[in-house]
Amino acid sequence: MSTLSDYELPLTPDQEHYLKKELLNIQLHREFNKISPTYHDITGLRRFGPPFWPFDPKKPPANKDDAIKASADLVDYYDAQFPMLRHFFTEFVMTFPFIEHYTRAHGDGLWVDKFQKFFEIWKSKQISNSNDRGELSKRKLVLQKFISFMLMLYNSSLVTLGDDIYFNKDATRNSYRKLGKVMPLELDLKEVLRQEDHFINGLAVNVCGVSQGREETKIKKITGFWSRSTTPKMSTFYQFIIQIKSNKSHDETFYVRRRYSDFVKFDHQLGRQFPGQDLPVLPSKLKISTEIEVAGVDDNDFQLSDNDSEIIPDQSLEEILGLEKKAAESVKMEGPEISTGQSSTTESFREVSVTKLPREKLRVALRGYISQLLRVSAVRNSPLFVEFVSAEKFSLPTEEELMDIEQRQKLDDLIVIQQVKFQQETVRFIGELQLTMNSLKDKVLNGSENTSIEDLDTGSGLIAVFREIGTADTIDKLSPYLRAFIDVAKIEVASTIYEILIANDNSMANLHIFKRLHMFFPYRFVATILRFTNPMQIAKKLIDLFTLQSPLTLGFGSGMSLLQMMFTGILNDDLKKLEKEIDLITEKVSSYDKKGKPLKLGTNSYALIIEKINEYLSAKDEIVIDIKETCREHNLDLPLGILMNNNGLETKINQNVLIAVVESYKSWVVFVRLNESHTDYDDNTDSAVFDKLSKSADLYVNIKAYFKSCLRKRDKDGMRELWEEPELVRLVKELISIFFEPLIKIFTKAQLYLYIPIVREFNSELIKLIDNYHNDYNSLMGKGNNVVMQFMSLLTKYQDHLYRFIHHLYISDLANPDGQVFQGLIEWFNKFVLLLNFVKKQKPELKMDLTKKVNDLLRSQKNLPEGDPRKIDKDKLIDQIIKIISDVQLKRKAYDKVLEEQSNGDGQLNEKDIFAADRKKVVTQNWQKINQNFNSIFEGEGGEAMKMTGLVGSDLDELNMEFLEDAEREKEDSIAVQLPSEQFLKVIGAKTKSEEANKSYIKSEEFEDVYDNSEILKLSDMFSEMVEKVIREIPKF
């Protein structure tokens, strides 16, 4: 006999929280799927409600006005169908300042005439998606991130009674994120300068020195009209010493010598072997020698200055200055070319030694060139690269070469020491910012949890922070937290400039580009133009010109705008190239057999592969979806699934051909993995295996290339048709108007021309400062040569000009009677803060009692018979919740491990750090620690900004963990790899699929989320009503 407890489920706070989050996720995907329930449904916005029309916008019915009015009367119904999407759309999309200003002036025609019409045209085209391509499309990635963002937003806003307990308990984890636990002040500077191997794709390659040689050359002279004579002459040439080490044999290090002409030849060969590959540019031949002047290396030159003491604690700076002195001493009197002279002063005479290091700038630039090539796996694994770094290798340089290598290493150390100084200064400013965050939190939340929503909207939130920009006309009058934030921004800008234009291996090339831009930029001409014209107005007129559609009169004219003709022309050129590419691949596949001999076209020929792929591309949706589901179920690559013989396609392929395709597919899988794992050639055996796999995978590579080329051709055909549609041009024109019109009004009063000369002066001083460091390495060491202070002083000198421009722009915006753009943006961002805090602080009675609702539903079902699909299995429900929590904990454990490794400096280098490739690893790891500490102010459970905005730190963490599971799934083998080819074909041949499974996949086609948590799904209708009720109570901010 059932008892009452059989229909009760005592959820813990953790279980209630994750049940709520999963139900929110289901609700979001359900709402998106209502907009696009089938593969090519175009009517989704008609079901979304106002401001969209409930009928075809291109063919409105006769009673259009009545239908629009009836739709407007059904807003409550639409809100119930799409509670989260409609709330986000009406509260954050329609009220975005630029859009709101535009619709206020031009009405709501944007949504129907432009957006809805274009949406339905877009959905009618067969543009490939992530399923088709076998990779994450940009559209899919954006959609996933948007859904994850909405889930995070509403999960932190719509809280349950158990969330307070869950979040308070969760706040104790990740203690390593606390600011100050691991700071760069603790870094052993000797460890920074320790020699390390910087492996990239299995190799550590360093252009470490330069050797000088002599050779006899012959100069041709014309002695007469028909006669020439040659005169022998000895000339000097330089060779770059390259050190190579493999991670497969750490103890083995060898060297090669290469002249610049060898690099030129190598670069040309790479261009021919890898056409279309994005390869780095070979640095220009810089015939520049670096000179170091050491005047006795007096101890007084390496004492603390007042400026130094302000930046770095005495103990750390003493160590830095000691290392600078040691570097200078190591360079003194070791150079191959040294001159000595007398330098007189009023106090004493000191000996001056000059060490000359030829081709130093070119050596560093070539090191950067090689490092960039190593990151291109195809180049790194090519025999051409291997030959370049291994031919004519030797084990030990000469004594003179070793001395040169050591000298140049010390110069590299001087560059690194300045990076440490930047890090120390960054730490100090972050510490000051941390101390001011409490006052900023009070400012945003107005110092009280009981403040009314009206007061929050007008006197607090982010509005109160940015209002200071309008009231304070100088930086000195800003609040301490804003001044601290400006200091952090300055040191970040200064360190970035130092990295790009001084410390980076490509710094000379970057500086050359910067100088040319500065030299040829017409500052005065631009300032004069800006004084009498509005740049935004000019840009708007140009855009109007490009989007103006030419009339089609008497058979003349195209009826297309310049913009349309430009894009359709580009697409036509791309289509011609694709057609040639498809023809070439077709010829390769059609003439292929497993023995490598050509076959005549026939019933069992490989040409049927091409025919079957073509049939798939024009097949009905039901067949396409069935094939995709088979591939998803068995983890197959889509082109392989298309070629199977039981998938609804009429074309059948011979069994022997299929076996050859599967074998080639297996080789392709192994080949790709070896390439991605950066396997290198340490011996001829590895090279032979790699080449054999490459040849074996050739058939499937061509099949996949043909399929992708056909998809690209179909996509470009669809895009060309879209560009020929007038609706797209109208939408582009309207979107540009939305963003340009407000800016035109603001920049009319901005007086931008006043700041152009200031930008010129700043760039001139910056170039002068950087040139000083490039031309004189002595400026990097010694007393009074504080690089950090000089960069900071330059930025401080011009910071008031930048702030004055921002302040004036903000004031001009406030005075705009047609709408305040920047103030509107601040208020719009503030809406997110208000939403996140509304239930927590203003209406705690709206907290959802999810446990009670679940138990009420369980009790209401006690009379349902067993087997009723509506009845919830309590044990299965709790198991599914526990499984969700377990999965999250596993991902969180992996994510926390990554964060902790980064905090300790042991993690992998951040791919977003574009300078990591040229830095010492320990310096990059130190920057990771600094960034982790800086981010802790804004992220995580201890982050003040998290408390300030109401955003829950664990939700942000789980947003960052979204793709960890996908990365693991990609490592799983398909059954095509696991089974012998013939057995695999039998398994696929016996495949059957239920109609229900097909329907499930069709519904999820657009968003690719099929829910296996059947018991949780049974709670979704009840939860949807709860969400709708809470959202209805949230006011319009």
TrEMBL record:
Residue span, PX domain: 218-396
A GO molecular function held by the record: phosphatidylinositol binding
Pfam families noted in UniProt: DUF3818, PX, PXB
Family annotation (InterPro entries): LEC1-like (IPR047168), LEC1-like_C (IPR024554), PX-associated (IPR024555), PX_dom (IPR001683), PX_dom_sf (IPR036871)
Name recorded for this polypeptide: PX domain-containing protein
